[in-house]
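Consider this record:
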Amino acid sequence: MNRLYKHLEDKNFWYTKYLACTEAYIQALHHAPDIALGELELFYGNRESLLKILDGLDAKVHEEVKLIEKHGTELSTEQHTKVRHFLREKDGIVNRIIELDKILMNEIEALKIKSEEKLKLLAKGKRALAKYKSSSGTNERIDKRV
């Protein structure tokens, strides 16, 4: 039973790491969006690594539960309470992660729209400049006349 508790505790630890990773990236987006966007792949890679760790812990929890069921051991009220505590803690962390992921997606979408607007303005500026530039052929003809 202690191994089950340890695995559940470890899972919550790694969920907390996942949450902290997301919080840190959102802070980076607020303070230095250009740099943060450049590190987006690294951020997603870190999260994938954390998910692999969590998957491994899920497998260990599943094995412990199977062993408990195999031995026909009934959990006491105290044991049920302790397991439910770990699960409630995990649910709270996961809910916060979901909230932050929604915020993150909105932030990235807003930056994307802002970037698209900047690109449109840049294209307009280039077109305006092109109207005032003479073509190279016109410059040659003017040079020959002079």
